[in-house]
């Protein structure tokens, strides 16, 4: 190859080339500096052994149209109640409507999580994918850049972002941080997650939160860019200025006042005339519409009858099956002939109660319920729950002849709790059995409240919907009124008198706390043996409200002894255990739903009541009723700091009255204390061999 062919002739550097080069270098420098100053798009790193994790913190959120203009929808998005948002946000009522860009503080449970060997701090929020959702859309529009789609991909490695199925649950990691020890010493109690807006300046953000500009720079650096998530160090949350109606300015001067009076008189006259006209038109229109609706209703009925006559049984069955197509893979679809044969044509000799029949199919006993309404919603809820304290749905059937739906459940041998407490059974329930029933129901409710997304509210907890199996273990039945998703308002109030929570009856507020209230009533039934509402219409929870009032323990015991079931007094059960259960019931029945305990707290408290049933004698720890071996059902926390170690006392029968001190190391997800307790309990009860259960330094795994 010739030399000149390898020689490149230099180009002339024009003025335009020079300007372009300078602009490129400046923009490149800015981008590079921004990338160096900000954390990875996958989140903020943390130290796993930092004692301040986990912590309660907050995110600054703005109401937005069209989906998030009320606290209920925002609460469901972040899996918190409306009250948990309204109080820190300075909103007087949790049912108040919001306006676009209205500022809010949303609570977060922030933890340090190990992802692919890197510790990242975020709050786990579970979101159910809807049509047209993508990681990017949900991150930027719904969660308003409090996370990034890269972070979502990181914590959901099994999901393909371009192949998201409607209904799948996705974890969205909301960026958050917990104060370190130095910050805590400087009285920084929260690092509030805040998305820096294009219109923001450091000084404006500092003014909003009532902090110094430098304190924001100290935490986040000095190169904050629009849409970055930053953290605002505060001692306490600032009082947000919520929008109010601004009164109009009244004109001054005689002429203006005169004009105002004339204007008001004319306006009121016109308004009165319009009111009369509108009222007349409305009454006329209602009369016409009523006649039209009656005609349309008759026409529709005739059309349905004509359509049903023309369609064959197979056509109707196919249409109905389409509504429950999601359930076909999980449940057995029974034929109507099978159910008729099993129940002797739904004869009275097979009737259990109401519209529930007992039937045998291939030698197995089933409870077959004829539904009085469309069962699609109940099927959709039941297909996502599976717990030992919930009655199991085995399958369903749709009768093509009359379009009736039948639900086929496992058969529960011993009937309802209601029949045991208020029926004519000669055998009465011991206190220990009643307490175990309460714990079983609480466990079932804890499962549907805490481990389903969106959370399921049963809405009809009562003694007749609690069934007892052959071992007297309780199972929750009848999800006909259940609702998937909470913190909502409904105008359609349904339920059983005596069990309905006041806020639901008054305002239609649907939340998990209404189940807590109903559970409190059931607990009162177990303690007293009385029905939730008497023949005179007096409700049990109102009658029991004053039993534990006052500070004199002797008076409390005296009132409780006079009120409780006489069967329990004859049994000489532990009054301390009954008192503890009564305290739990009283807490469940608090008029303010936000002050009621969660089912997690209730399970733990009732376990302590169960522990008190044991009698300590010279022969060691004895179960007076069952002679049960192994550790007690409950354990007691004797020391808990903000560190990862919890010290727990465990009593064992094998060693008589010896008390073993066990160290348990909190795991990443043990933010709520009772979860840690349940983990240790499961470990201990699984080791009932002779000898010590655990050494002093053994670590449950």
From TrEMBL:
Residue stretches making up the Protein kinase domain: 260-614
SMART domains per UniProt: LysM (SM00257), S_TKc (SM00220)
Record's keyword terms, sorted: ATP-binding, Cell membrane, Disulfide bond, Membrane, Nucleotide-binding, Signal, Transmembrane, Transmembrane helix
Gene3D superfamilies: LysM domain, Phosphorylase Kinase, domain 1, Transferase(Phosphotransferase) domain 1
Chief location of this protein within or outside the cell: membrane
Bilayer-crossing regions: 260-284
Membrane topology: Single-pass membrane protein
GO BP annotations listed: response to other organism
Gene Ontology molecular-function annotations: ATP binding; protein kinase activity
Places the protein is found: Cell membrane
InterPro entries: Kinase-like_dom_sf, LysM, LysM_dom_sf, NFP_LYK_LysM1, NFP_LysM2, NFP_LysM3, Plant_RLK_LysM, Prot_kinase_dom
Pfam families xrefs: LysM1_NFP_LYK, LysM2_NFP, LysM3_NFP, Pkinase
Gene Ontology CC: one annotated term: plasma membrane
Protein name as catalogued: Protein kinase domain-containing protein
Originating species: Dovyalis caffra
